[in-house]
């Protein structure tokens, strides 16, 4: 007989994090540090580090924990999901299909799986590979950067969200105990697009090659972000997709605030979102590490939305192309040059 998962019957649910990198080690590590039963699935290079050194977690509010992992708490073997009560998928978007294929042979029917990834379509990709699982789209609003090998730092505010699906309610106390509250939502498409509107800053931050706080202090970079966000908001309105408030301001006002002069922006910024000085975008981390970026799953989603509506998205298309060029050439962009490039892309598209 097939055993289906009933997490409310499990006092200490077994959680597997698939894709132990910045988000996976931070979220999984916080759960572990609070006594949860967690196994991280990741690469050998990180396993070697974490077998020799503690997993160090810090946050922008002074949290710090050091956890010595046992050999069975970090593995390269996907079959550990066989007795999981919850799987958190934290690979980059290009690796999602492969993650689903690695999990599929081992997962019990009905196991809750949360995609803690940026972008719009990761949960759907997982669902297509894991038809028996209960897949939920999730959202990580905060930034995590690996400061040193094995030291993960959470640098901005916000709490985890996931689409309400069967079995997740019973897991909420486990997240609450870790200090990372999980909110279940019925409007996850809106949450994902709203997060994507914030992630439109990822390519700009990556191309700037400076920390988020420094980049957002430069009005030219902020104007680039405002252009990309306005273009996206117009398309979302046409598609009938609502946005939700993920910072102190409604999403529709964010581009207006981004375009403000520095003196006015600085007054509002500290009330909008707490960011510490070392935080950078995950796209910057990818570029630095010489990995392909997620730009096709962020700005590329906007370009695809435009196509589906018979429109174009020249600003987001241009950012996608510049990041792909940068993956090869390593060219970084000063704010004024990037703004000029985006405006010229928009002019050319208007003439076409
Ligand atoms: N970092 C951040 O601040 C934030 C990131 N996000 C999103 O969260 C997701 C994860 O990002 P992040 O944590 O930065 O990514 P990372 O690249 O740091 O972590 C993913 C890890 O998973 C590993 N991995 C991939 N495939 C497998 C596999 N089949 N088996 C085992 N390990 C595997 C990767 O190894 P390898 O590189 O060798 O493939 C990598 O170490 C992304 O969608 C990102 O956009 C969301 C909010 C904030
Ligand atoms: C938290 C944020 C928005 C920081 O840029 C992010 O999602 C990322 O780096 O991918």
What CATH architecture of the largest domain would you give? 3-Layer(aba) Sandwich
- Give the amount of beta strand, in percent: 5-15%
Helix content: 40-55%
Overall geometry comes to globular
Radius of gyration, CA atoms, in whole angstroms? 20 Å
The CATH class of the largest domain turns out to be: Alpha Beta
CATH topology of the largest domain: Rossmann fold
Largest sheet: 8 strands, mixed
Ligands and ions found: NADPH dihydro-nicotinamide-adenine-dinucleotide phosphate, ketopantoate
- Beta strands, count: 12
What string, H for helix and E for strand, traces the elements in order? Answer: EHEHEEEEHEHEEEEHEHHHHHHHHHH
CATH evolutionary superfamily of the largest domain: NAD(P)-binding Rossmann-like Domain
Q: Would you tell me the overall average pLDDT?
A: 94
Number of helices: 15
Structural class: alpha/beta
Major beta sheet, strand line-up: 5-2-1-6-7-8-11-12
Unreliable segments (pLDDT under 50, ≥5 consecutive)? Answer: 1-9
Distance between the termini: 62 Å
Question: Helices, strands, pairings?
Answer:
Layout: E1 14-18, H1 22-33, E2 37-41, H2 44-52, E3 55-59, E4 64-67, E5 74-75, E6 86-89, H3 96-103, E7 112-115, H4 122-129, E8 134-139, E9 144-148, E10 151-154, E11 160-163, H5 172-178, E12 182-185, H6 188-199, H7 201-208, H8 212-216, H9 219-239, H10 254-258, H11 262-272, H12 282-288, H13 295-308, H14 314-329, H15 335-351
Parallel strand pairs: 1-2, 1-6, 2-5, 3-10, 6-7, 7-8, 11-12
Antiparallel strand pairs: 3-4, 8-11, 9-10
Helix pairs in contact: 1-5, 3-4, 7-9, 7-12, 7-14, 9-13, 9-15, 13-14, 14-15
């Amino acid at each position: 007989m097939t055993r289906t998962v009933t997490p409310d019957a499990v006092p200490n649910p077994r959680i597997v994090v698939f894709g132990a990198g910045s988000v996976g080690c931070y979220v999984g590590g916080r759960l572990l540090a609070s006594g949860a039963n967690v196994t991280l699935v990741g690469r050998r290079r990180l396993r070697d580090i974490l077998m020799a050194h503690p997993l160090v977690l810090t946050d922008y509010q002074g949290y710090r924990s050091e956890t010595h992992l046992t050999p069975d708490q970090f593995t390269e073997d996907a079959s550990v999901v066989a007795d999981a009560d919850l799987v958190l998928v934290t690979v980059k978007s290009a690796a999602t299909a492969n993650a689903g294929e690695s999990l599929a042979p081992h997962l019990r029917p009905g196991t809750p799986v949360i995609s803690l990834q940026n972008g719009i379509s990761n949960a759907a990709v997982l669902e297509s590979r894991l038809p028996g699982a209960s897949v939920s789209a999730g959202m990580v609003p905060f930034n995590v950067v690996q400061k040193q090998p094995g030291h993960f730092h959470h640098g901005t505010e916000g709490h985890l969200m996931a689409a309400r699906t069967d079995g997740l309610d019973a897991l909420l106390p486990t997240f609450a105990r870790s200090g990372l509250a999980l909110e279940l939502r019925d409007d996850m498409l809106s949450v994902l697009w709203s997060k994507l509107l914030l992630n439109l800053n990822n390519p700009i931050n990556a191309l700037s090659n400076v920390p988020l706080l420094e980049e957002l202090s430069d009005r030219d970079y902020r104007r680039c972000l405002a252009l990309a966000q306005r273009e996206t908001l117009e398309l979302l309105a046409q598609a009938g997709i609502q946005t939700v408030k993920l910072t102190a301001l409604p999403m529709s006002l964010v581009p207006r605030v981004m375009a403000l002069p520095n003196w006015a922006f600085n007054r509002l910024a500290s009330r909008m979102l707490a960011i510490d000085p070392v935080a950078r975008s995950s796209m910057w981390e990818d570029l630095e590490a010489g990995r392909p970026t997620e730009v096709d799953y962020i700005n590329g989603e906007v370009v695809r939305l435009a196509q589906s509506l018979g429109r174009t998205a020249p600003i987001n298309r241009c950012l996608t192309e510049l990041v792909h060029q940068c993956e090869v050439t390593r060219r970084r962009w000063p704010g004024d040059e990037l703004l000029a490039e985006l405006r010229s892309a928009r002019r050319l598209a208007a003439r076409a």
